[in-house]
Amino acid sequence: NQPNVDEKRTVVKSNYLPIREHIRTIIEEKKSNLCLSADLTNLDEIIELSKQVGDYICLLKIHCDILNDFTMEKIRQLKTISKEKNFLLFEDRKFADIGNTVSLQYTKGLSQICEWADLVTVHALPGDGILKALEESSKEVGEPRGCFLLAQMSSKGALTDEKYVKATVQYAEKYQNFVIGFIAQSRLSTSSNIDYIHCTPGVHINSSEDKFGQQYISPAEAVLQRGADVIICGRAILESNDRVQTAKLYQTEGYKAYQQKRQ
Ligand code: 5BU
């Protein structure tokens, strides 16, 4: 006998913190505000990497549509590791379609994202029906789910101007249970006192850009000047000579700044 959806939700409430609080707790407990952006094309490799660096990160972000060997069995293995090592799984899907379509993209297809991704990214561009649809779909699984709204992008020439950012924040306030924070390049002013989690990608200590318009800042700049809670690092770690040591370095740099900011 399967528990019905309402029974599942009751179980969730007793077992899990709300997701925004959960991330803050992980950051404090593990002394890490590092999100590893594991932009690799092989899920087996991500699984191995997550065992090695899982202790040093609060979030693991992937792009499941670049994986050559995606299977639900493998993604469940990654999920098990995320629970053992206490980090959340984050699919950077950047949903951007009408509500009905995104809800299908979220729950169906080969990757069934909603089943395993604690967090996803969402564009505000289509209007707030996108959030209504994703939030509704997320309630069908027996675990808390949340999203980050994309407010500002790190790439050169991004069209996310002030007016766009303002409207994005308003959508976040309207769906404040599901929208747990923003992907942003600055601290956004909101009209409520909700402690939205700000994540900043485009973080690298040794580089200022890539050849396709990605723009980098240091962990300290991201946290102290731009107001990030979480730093998102991909190639800075993935392309280093020692991924584990480099992850530890970004963990240390990121958390030092996080503590300084919250004092
Ligand atoms: P990098 O290797 O650290 O440059 O990778 C950055 C990651 O963050 C990559 O997965 C991007 O898709 C993601 N990203 C970004 O770089 N900038 C943005 O504004 C957003 C996401 Br939104």
UniProtKB/TrEMBL annotation:
GO biological process annotation, one example: 'de novo' UMP biosynthetic process
Active-site residues annotated for this sequence: D92, K94, D97
UniProt KW keywords: Decarboxylase, Glycosyltransferase, Lyase, Multifunctional enzyme, Pyrimidine biosynthesis, Transferase
Keyword hit for Lyase: yes
Keyword Transferase carried by entry: yes
Sequence ranges assigned to domain Orotidine 5'-phosphate decarboxylase in this UniProt record: 33-250
Assigned EC number: 2.4.2.10, 4.1.1.23
Binding site for substrate: D39, K61, S154, Q214, G234, R235
Pathway info: Pyrimidine metabolism; UMP biosynthesis via de novo pathway; UMP from orotate: step 1/2; Pyrimidine metabolism; UMP biosynthesis via de novo pathway; UMP from orotate: step 2/2
GO molecular function: orotate phosphoribosyltransferase activity; orotidine-5'-phosphate decarboxylase activity
Domain of life assignment: Eukaryota
Family membership: In the N-terminal section; belongs to the purine/pyrimidine phosphoribosyltransferase family. In the C-terminal section; belongs to the OMP decarboxylase family.
Protein name as it appears in the record: Uridine 5'-monophosphate synthase
Organism: Didymodactylos carnosus
